[in-house]
């Protein structure tokens, strides 16, 4: 009898705790949520760190107008699920920056789903087009916008200006 019980306990011990409901598994819906403000700050900081490491002489200055344009576009993507540089009403990044009062647009990066500022900047640096925006040493200003969709998915927009 003891041998049968011991064998059953040994078999139960081999079942992953997650299958028995004994351990919580982090999923996008219940993963720790980092504040939008922290993500935005991390993106600006890490972007400037990449620029310096790659030869740009000056850090980008945070611009409230570009931040507004970035947040508006991230909110649009989060609300609609559309992942595109084309925004509300068919707007382009140039139109969004100018609507926010910024007169010299330089570029835009977008992303979604990453959980940290480091992860999104790393992904942008691996993409030739996004990397070119980040390492455009002629750009002088930046705005970053992060907005969570109802699903918990973060949408990111990074705006650059001259």
Q: So what's the oligomer here?
A: single chain
Mean pLDDT: 86
Outline the biggest β-sheet.
Answer: 4 strands, mixed
Helical/strand content category: alpha+beta
Number of helices: 6
The radius of gyration is 22 Å
Task: State the low-pLDDT regions, or none.
Answer: 5-30
Measured as a percent range, the helix fraction is: 40-55%
* Beta-strand residue fraction: 15-25%
Strand order of the largest sheet: 1-3-4-2
Q: Span from first to last CA?
A: 80 Å
Number of DSSP E strands: 4
H/E series: HHEHHEHHEE
Descriptive notes:
- With 162 residues, the chain is of the alpha+beta class.
- It has six helices and four strands.
- Strands 1-3-4-2 form a four-stranded mixed β-sheet, with helices on both faces.
- A hairpin with a 5-residue loop joins strand 3 and strand 4.
- The model is unreliable at 5-30 (pLDDT under 50).
Can you tag this structure with a few keywords?
162 residues; alpha+beta; four-stranded mixed beta sheet
Give a short synopsis of this structure.
Helix content is 44%, strand content 16%. It has helices spanning 2-14, 36-53, 64-80, 93-99, 117-126, 128-134; strands at 61-62, 105-112, 141-148, 154-161.
How are the secondary structure elements laid out?
Layout: H1 2-14, H2 36-53, E1 61-62, H3 64-80, H4 93-99, E2 105-112, H5 117-126, H6 128-134, E3 141-148, E4 154-161
Parallel strand pairs: 1-3
Antiparallel strand pairs: 2-4, 3-4
Helix pairs in contact: 2-5, 3-4
């Amino acid at each position: 009898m003891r041998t049968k019980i011991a064998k059953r306990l040994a078999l139960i011990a081999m079942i992953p705790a997650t299958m028995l409901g004994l351990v919580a598994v982090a999923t996008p819906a219940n993963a720790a949520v980092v504040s939008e403000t922290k993500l935005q700050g991390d993106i600006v900081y890490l972007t400037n760190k990449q620029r310096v490491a790659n030869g740009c002489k000056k850090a980008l200055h945070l611009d409230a107008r570009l931040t507004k344009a970035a947040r508006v576009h991230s909110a649009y993507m989060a609300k609609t699920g559309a992942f595109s540089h084309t925004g509300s009403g068919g707007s382009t990044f140039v139109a969004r920056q100018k609507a926010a009062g910024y007169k010299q647009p330089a570029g835009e990066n977008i992303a979604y789903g990453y959980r940290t500022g480091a992860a999104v900047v790393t992904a942008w640096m691996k993409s030739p087009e996004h990397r070119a925006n980040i390492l455009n040493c002629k750009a002088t200003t930046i705005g970053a916008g992060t907005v969570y969709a109802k699903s918990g998915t973060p949408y990111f927009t990074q705006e650059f200006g001259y």
